[in-house]
Design a protein that fits this description.
114 residues, Cytochrome Bc1 Complex, Chain D, domain 2, elongated, binds heme C, Sulfite:cytochrome C oxidoreductase subunit b, signal
Length: 114
């Protein structure tokens, strides 16, 4: 008799368990105010303005900073083309071949080996 009661209780608690879950996790969330962040703005961040700077900025800052590109030693046009090709081939950067050409032109002008 007693045993049957236990089984009935167990069945009942199993049946209500999923419904009981939200109640268990419904502790009120403590909302924190949005932190204030001063992002650097101005002409001194990102790629220097010039023909193609918008193209390189929109294609080459998704995965790393503009500085990551600009802090490289000056490279020849051919070497820049290889870097851009590597971003596309190895890291799957979604860059059209037209944009890639504009970017190589830009890099050659701004960080070209002279
Ligand atoms: C899909 C992500 C992604 C995009 C988009 C991307 N890169 Fe990279 N890039 C990487 C990774 C990953 C590395 C290698 C890791 C590191 O050096 O921090 C890298 C490294 C570099 C380096 C360092 C030298 C080297 O060969 O590793 C340069 C320069 C560079 N990227 C330039 C560019 C340029 C220019 C573009 C736009 C044409 C670009 N990246 C777009 C992912 C990306």
């Amino acid at each position: 008799m007693f045993r049957h009661t236990r089984i009935a209780l167990l069945a009942a608690s199993l049946a209500t368990f999923p419904a009981g879950l939200p109640a268990a996790t419904a502790t009120p969330l403590e909302l924190h105010p949005k932190p204030e962040v001063d992002l650097p703005v101005g002409d001194d961040v990102g790629f220097p303005e010039g023909p193609g700077s918008d193209v390189i900025a929109s294609n080459c800052t998704a995965c790393h900073s503009a500085d990551h590109t600009l802090n490289q030693p000056a490279l020849s046009r051919d070497e820049w083309r290889k870097v851009v090709d590597k971003m596309i081939a190895a890291y799957k950067a979604p860059i059209t071949s037209e944009d890639a050409r504009t970017i190589v032109d830009y890099l050659d002008r701004v960080k070209g080996e002279r």
